[in-house]
Amino acid sequence: MPCYAELMTLPDLNLLVTLDALLSEGSVARAARRLRLSPSATSRALARLREVTGDPLLVRAGRGLVPTPRARELAARVGPVLDEATAMLRPLRDLDLGTLERTFTLRCSEGFVETFGPALVGHVAAQAPGVRLSFMTKTDRDSALLREGSVDLETGVVGDAASPSPTSPEIKARALFRDRFVGVVRSGHPLAVRPPSLADYVAARHVGIARRGAERWPVDDALGPLGLQRDVAVRVGGFAAALALAAATDLAATIPERHTGGLRQGLHIFPLPLAVAPITVSLLWHPRMDADPAHRWLRGLVHDICGD
Predict the structure, then answer these.
(1) Taking CA 66 as the corner, what is the angle to CA 65 and CA 70, rounded to the nearest 5 degrees?
(2) Strands 181-185 and 268-271, how do they pair?
(3) Would you state the pLDDT for residue 270?
(4) Sheet holding 181-185: strands in order across?
(5) In the chain, where are the structural domains located?
(6) How many Å is the maximal CA-CA distance in the chain?
(7) pTM for this one?
(8) Is domain 4-89 annotated with CATH 1.20.1730.10?
């Protein structure tokens, strides 16, 4: 990569346009008409090109000009260079999903892939068969991977009671859906016989989720003002482990309902017998990807699949 001092000494890159016209036309007069310049201005540009390249480029032969060997070499290169530069400076064209080849990395909370992954994979395969998805389990709220570019999209809870710490101000967010907390027990559990009262719920033994090191769960914040607390017999690190224990023991789990839909097969769910604030699950990305057409397409697809 050239340093600043080197950039200050770069030749006038507009000369490439003049060079292309001169080599294509083989005539200063015709090149001038093509460039909409005067012949004298085009002649001056040719003189500058000779000075920059150290080669006469075009020399007189009878009534016309003929290219030197260096000019013939440059003629094969200048066209593609100009095409590439022009493409770089044009607005992005419409996205062609049929030819798009790209891998996107999505960092998701536990349960997202099981619940929403099959639909997302199916839609991506149908619309953009050259696109690959890589799912990464989200274990913390650090947005460094989004900033570094190693992750394209994340899902997470921003600013609700379950996750009060704000996300980085440079990260963009779009709400996907609101989710409520429900109780989950095995079939045949006493809490599955009838909707439990608050006393029944508190008296049960619970499996707690110590998410990102937090000891309290939103339901605990709701019980606190009532002077009540759950009997948390076991703590685990995620939804899947909590549900596995609930399925095989008499422990009750309290989890977000929609986010864990793909993990709860065969289990009994019940509404909580107290008011617990719902959470909003959002899609997160870095602003540098905001205008990227392929990234924008994937964001819209995730929103359509997961949105309320």
Answers:
(1) 130
(2) antiparallel
(3) 96
(4) 231-236, 205-209, 252-256, 181-185, 268-271
(5) 4-89, 102-178+281-306, 181-277
(6) 107
(7) 0.67
(8) no
- Contact by Cβ (8 Å): 217, 239: no
Q: How many whole angstroms separate alpha carbon 243 and alpha carbon 230? A: 17
Partners of residue 256 on adjacent β-strands? 181
User: H/E element holding 59?
Assistant: strand 58-61
Cα separation, 68 vs 74, in Å, equals: 10
Name the band, by pLDDT with cuts 50, 70 and 90, for residue 164.
very low
What percentage of the chain carries pLDDT values higher than 90? 47
Mapping DSSP to helix (H, G, I), strand (E, B) and coil, where does residue 285 land?
strand
Beta-ladder partners of 183: 254, 270
> What type of residue sits at position 227?
G
CB under 8 Å to 286, separation ≥6 — which residues? 146, 147, 149, 170, 171, 172
Name the token pair of 171.
Answer: 């990260």
User: Does domain 102-178+281-306 fall into CATH 3.30.460.10?
Assistant: no
Residue 246 has φ and ψ, to the nearest 5°, of: -65, -35
Tens-digit pLDDT profile for residues 186-241: 999 999 999 999 999 999 999 998 865 455 678 999 999 999 999 999 999 888 89
Q: Is 232 left (phi over 0), alpha (psi -120 to 50) or beta?
A: beta
Closest to 137 measured CA to CA, from 241, 293, 208: 241
The rounded distance, in Å, linking the Cα atoms of 200 and 207 is: 15
Fold entry, domain 181-277: D-Maltodextrin-Binding Protein; domain 2 (3.40.190)
- Asked if 102-178+281-306 and 181-277 have one fold, the answer is yes
Contact present, 148 and 275 (Cβ < 8 Å): no
